[in-house]
């Protein structure tokens, strides 16, 4: 293993974090990880990483700290306080937060970290579990150019499209826009699926030809089998997309941008969650359309 690569601490080993950290290990990085679930720590160790017993232990001698947790409160919980990252990381370390959180949380974190001599990038991702496993994520980054340049080789091991979008918080703003587009796209696909099925059309054939034309999309490519097989095993949970739709609608209100369709889809996501489907993949928006259409819901 190359000794010139920075030492990495990875906090958060969920659906996305586990395969992403393993891709860094495959790329030759030394990765020490911490998460709350022992089985996830065991998985990291089996892949060649080192399991830490605390955040402090994980980040103590790290050059780069990567965080991948569900939402703003989780980022604040691991970053602040005596047991958090800012109190235990060394001055000069680079903190790359890949969680999807509010832009303001990222701005506040960067400011607090600067006082400790810690550099910060917000670097949320798009591509879901499959993109994480295949290391083809799209990574939208906010922060300083020099810090982005320093992090770029590491990010290259995780994704395919990696872009600095502006100052702190910009990555999160672009991610919010991404989640708006994805949710509206899934909803449109779900409505088309129910329309096609009620019309008696061969659904697989229809989706194949639609995906070859202007209606085609990465969303349809990735979610086509979910629709066809009614397989809603979570790659990205409705619960998390509900959180993200809250972020984008709130941020849009703050800047005076109207989201007429996005607002409706945000309510449909919230409704699906209220009906007990929050733990399912966001392609389960199909279930909401089926209920509204009087179709049987598997």
Q: Your description of this structure?
A:
- There is one protein chain.
- The protein is of the alpha/beta class and 298 residues long.
- It has two domains: 8-167, Rossmann fold (3-Layer(aba) Sandwich); 174-293, N-(1-d-carboxylethyl)-l-norvaline Dehydrogenase, domain 2.
- It contains 14 helices and nine strands.
- It has helices at 17-26, 38-46, 55-59, 72-79, 85-88, 103-114, 128-134, 145-156, 170-198, 203-211, 218-229, 238-255, 260-277, 285-292; strands at residues 8-11, 31-34, 50-51, 64-67, 94-97, 119-122, 125-126, 137-142, 159-166.
- The strands form two sheets. Strands 3-2-1-4-5-6 form a six-stranded parallel beta sheet, sandwiched between helices. Strands 7-8-9 form a three-stranded mixed beta sheet.
- The longest helix is centred in the middle third of the chain and has 29 residues, at 170-198.
Label this structure with key terms.
298 residues, N-(1-d-carboxylethyl)-l-norvaline Dehydrogenase, domain 2, 9 strands, 14 helices, alpha/beta, Rossmann fold, six-stranded parallel beta sheet, 2 domains, globular, 13% strand
Q: Poorly predicted ranges (pLDDT <50, ≥5 residues)? A: none
**With helices defined by DSSP (H or I, 4 residues minimum), what is the helix count?**
14
Number of strands: 9
Order of neighbouring strands in the sheet with most strands: 3-2-1-4-5-6
Shape: globular
Determine the N-to-C terminus distance.
49 Å
CATH superfamily of the largest domain: NAD(P)-binding Rossmann-like Domain
CATH class of the largest domain: Alpha Beta
Annotated CATH topology of the largest domain: Rossmann fold
Which structural class do the helices and strands define?
A: alpha/beta
Query: Strand content of the residues, in percent?
Result: 5-15%
**What integer value in Å does the Rg equal?**
20 Å
Largest β-sheet summary: 6 strands, parallel
